[in-house]
C-alpha cells in the first residue's frame, strides 16, 4: 500500500521556485563550461567567464527563457490554490527537511522571499508562541519564574532538541522547575543577523512573560551558541532589559573559533578556480549559505563579514567579542577521542568542531575566551550530536544550573 503525502501549497510554490532557480543555475554553469572548453586552450591560470554566441548561445538563452516562463506560470497557479490547500503539512520529516534546506540556502530563500524560508520565532512543542502577555499566558498556562531558552544549531530545528528520547529542556523542567521555550530560526542567515533578531525577540519575550521572572538561562548547541553570543552583543548595544536579567549561558559544542569543514570548502573553491576548465564548477561551492561561511572562523558581528567577499580566501579578521559581562558562562566540548591526547581528540574534536574551538581557546590572546576550570567540561568518546542526548552531558548541565548564583559572583 502506497501512502500519499500531501505538502501545503506554500511548500510546493517554494520548491518550484527553488527548482527553477537551480535548473537555471546549472544551465548557466554548463554554458560557462562550454564557453571555456571552446576557447583557445591555454595554461592553467586565471579563470575566464563568458557567454556563448551564435546558435549555441541561442539554445542556452532559449532554455533559460523557457525555464523562467514555466516557473512563473506554475508559481502563479499554486498561489491561487494556496488558500484552498492550507498552510500546514502532515507529511513526516517536513520540518527536518526545511531545516536542512534553510541551513544550506537560507539566505537565498529569505532574499528571494521564498515561502520555504523559516521566520524566527519562539516555540513550544513545535507551535509558535505569541509575544503578547495575555496570549502568551494562555499558550503557557504553567509558566514559571525560571525561564530557559534553548537555541538549536545549523541545519536543525527546535524539535530536534529531543534525541534518543531525551530533551535537555524537558528534563530540566522536570528536575529543576524551568519553563523551556525553544528558538526556531533560519540557520542560513548570517549569525549576526540572527543574533540581532534573537536579541529583539528575547526583549519582547521578557516583557510578555506572564509571571515575575526569577531566573533566565540560555543553552546554545553548536551554531546556537554563536547566535546567543551575538544576541548578547546586540542586547548590550541596545541596552536591552533581558541581558541584565540573564543569569547563565551554557554552550554545547559551539565553534567559537570556527570549524575546519567550512575552511575546507573554501579551499575547494580555490582549487577548482585554478583552471578555466574547472572554474565553472567552483560555483557549486558557493551554494553554501552565509550562515555556513560564518562558521569558517566563528563570525558573530556584522563587521566580521560586511563589505567582504565571503567566499574569498582570507585570514581570520574577526572583531574580538568577549563573553557577556555579569553572566555566568559554562562550556561543554566533546571529542571522539577516548582520552586526552588521542588522535581523535587532537584532530577531529567531536567530528565537526575542534576541541580548541569548542573550548574557546585561541593563539591570539585578544580572541581567546576564558572559561574558569569549574565552568568547562570535556566529554570523551562522543560526537557533536551526542551532546544533545548523553546522560553525562545532562548531568553536568543540571549540576551547573542547580547551583545558586553566589551574591558576589556577578560583582
Describe the structure.
It is globular and about 50 Å long. The strands form two sheets. An eight-stranded mixed sheet has the order 2-1-6-3-7-8-9-10. A two-stranded antiparallel ribbon has the order 4-5. The protein is built from 14 helices and ten strands. It is α/β, with parallel strands linked by helices and 411 residues long. Helix content is 43%, strand content 12%. Helix 5 crosses helix 14. The longest helix is centred in the first third of the chain and has 32 residues, at 54-85. The chain has two domains: 9-91; 121-258 and 318-402, Rossmann fold, CATH 3.40.50.1820. The termini are far apart. The protein has helices at 9-38, 54-85, 94-111, 133-139, 168-176, 191-208, 223-237, 241-245, 260-272, 282-285, 290-294, 343-348, 355-358, 391-402; strands at 121-124, 127-128, 146-151, 162-163, 166-167, 179-184, 215-221, 246-252, 328-335, 376-380.
Query: What value does the Rg take, in angstroms?
Result: 24 Å
Q: Which percent range fits the helix content?
A: 40-55%
Query: Averaged pLDDT, please?
Result: 79
How does the helix and strand content classify structurally? alpha/beta
Outline type: globular
CATH homologous superfamily caption of the largest domain: Alpha/Beta hydrolase fold, catalytic domain
Question: Termini distance?
Answer: 66 Å
Record field, number of beta strands: 10
Please state the second-level CATH architecture of the largest domain. Answer: 3-Layer(aba) Sandwich
CATH topology of the largest domain: Rossmann fold
User: Biggest sheet: strands side by side, in what order?
Assistant: 2-1-6-3-7-8-9-10
Task: Look at the structure and give the CATH class of the largest domain.
Answer: Alpha Beta
Amino acid at each position: 500500500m502506497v501512502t500519499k503525502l500531501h505538502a501545503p501549497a506554500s511548500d510546493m510554490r517554494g520548491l518550484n521556485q527553488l527548482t527553477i532557480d537551480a535548473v537555471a543555475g546549472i544551465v548557466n554553469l554548463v554554458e560557462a563550461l562550454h564557453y571555456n572548453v571552446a576557447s583557445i586552450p591555454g595554461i592553467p591560470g586565471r579563470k575566464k567567464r563568458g557567454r556563448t554566441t551564435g546558435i549555441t548561445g541561442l539554445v542556452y538563452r532559449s532554455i533559460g527563457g523557457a525555464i523562467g516562463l514555466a516557473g512563473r506560470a506554475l508559481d502563479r497557479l499554486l498561489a491561487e490554490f494556496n488558500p484552498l490547500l492550507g498552510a500546514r503539512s502532515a507529511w513526516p520529516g517536513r520540518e527536518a527537511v526545511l531545516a536542512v534546506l534553510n541551513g544550506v540556502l537560507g539566505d537565498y530563500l529569505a532574499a528571494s522571499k521564498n515561502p520555504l524560508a523559516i521566520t524566527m520565532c519562539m516555540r513550544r512543542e513545535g507551535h509558535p508562541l505569541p509575544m503578547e502577555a495575555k496570549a502568551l499566558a494562555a499558550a503557557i498556562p504553567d509558566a514559571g519564574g525560571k525561564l530557559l531558552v534553548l537555541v538549536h544549531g545549523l541545519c536543525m530545528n527546535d524539535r530536534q532538541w529531543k534525541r534518543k528520547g531525551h530533551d535537555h529542556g524537558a528534563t530540566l523542567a522536570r528536575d529543576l522547575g524551568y519553563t523551556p521555550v525553544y528558538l526556531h530560526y533560519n540557520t542560513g542567515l548570517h549569525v549576526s543577523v540572527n543574533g540581532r533578531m534573537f536579541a529583539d525577540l528575547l526583549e519582547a519575550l521578557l516583557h510578555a512573560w506572564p509571571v515575575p521572572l526569577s531566573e533566565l538561562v540560555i543553552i546554545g548547541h553548536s551554531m546556537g551558541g554563536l547566535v546567543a553570543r551575538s544576541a548578547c552583543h546586540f542586547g548590550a548595544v541596545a541596552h536591552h532589559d533581558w541581558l541584565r536579567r540573564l543569569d547563565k549561558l551554557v554552550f554545547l559544542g559551539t565553534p567559537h573559533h570556527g570549524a575546519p569543514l567550512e575552511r575546507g570548502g573554501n579551499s575547494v573553491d580555490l582549487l577548482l578556480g585554478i583552471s578555466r576548465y574547472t572554474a565553472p564548477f567552483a560555483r557549486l561551492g558557493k551554494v553554501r549559505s552565509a550562515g555556513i561561511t560564518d562558521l569558517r572562523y566563528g563570525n558573530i558581528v556584522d563587521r566580521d563579514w560586511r563589505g567582504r567577499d565571503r567566499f574569498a580566501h582570507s585570514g581570520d579578521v574577526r572583531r574580538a567579542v568577549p563573553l557577556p559581562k555579569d553572566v555566568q558562562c559554562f562550556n561543554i566540548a566533546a571529542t571522539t577521542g577516548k582520552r586526552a591526547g588521542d588522535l581523535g581528540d587532537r584532530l577531529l574534536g567531536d567530528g565537526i568542531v575542534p576541541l580548541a574551538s569548542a573550548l574557546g581557546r585561541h593563539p591570539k590572546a585578544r580572541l581567546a575566551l576564558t572559561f574558569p576550570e569549574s565552568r568547562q567540561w570535556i566529554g570523551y568518546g562522543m560526537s557533536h550530536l551526542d551532546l544533545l542526548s548523553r546522560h553525562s552531558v545532562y548531568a553536568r548541565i543540571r549540576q551547573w544550573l542547580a547551583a545558586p548564583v553566589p551574591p558576589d559572583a556577578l560583582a
